[in-house]
Amino acid sequence: QVQLVESGGGLVQAGGSLRLSCAASGRTSRSFRMGWFRQAPGKEREFVAAITWSAASTYYADSVKGRFTISGDNAKSTVYLQMNSLKPEDTAVYYCAAGSRFSFMSYDNRAYNYWGQGTQVTVSS
Asked: Can you tell me whether residue 40 is helix, strand or coil?
């Protein structure tokens, strides 16, 4: 089993920044892919960004490209999501995910076996 704990959410004004962290513990693996998803009220969960530990490849949703940056610290088994130039439409619960189902694309939630409990991000206008 893998446990994921997110932190760093909060309330910020439009144009501001936040950094989310996701600490992984348990049977983690460098073969895992780590991702961030978000879910706004009344909407489906959507892909935000992903990173693969082995190749250090990163992937982003078009809506956050150029504003968000995903990174990882292998030694700490922690993944970060730096969010800049935040917009009110970024308001959502942000979830960290880990998985090894590489038959699915990074943006597909079926690629991930494990999920965190989520952290709220609220951007005021």
From this structure: coil
pLDDT(20) > 90: yes
Separation of alpha carbons 54 and 71, rounded Å: 13
Amino acid at 16: G
The encoded tokens of residue 14 equal: 């439009």
State whether residue 94 is helix, strand or coil. strand
DSSP 8-state code for residue 92: E
Report which DSSP code applies to 54.
Answer: T
Encoded amino acid at 33, one letter: R
Q: Which residues pair with 53 in a beta bridge?
A: none
Tokens of 19: 């950094």
- Least confident interval from 28-37, 82-91, 96-105, 106-115: 28-37
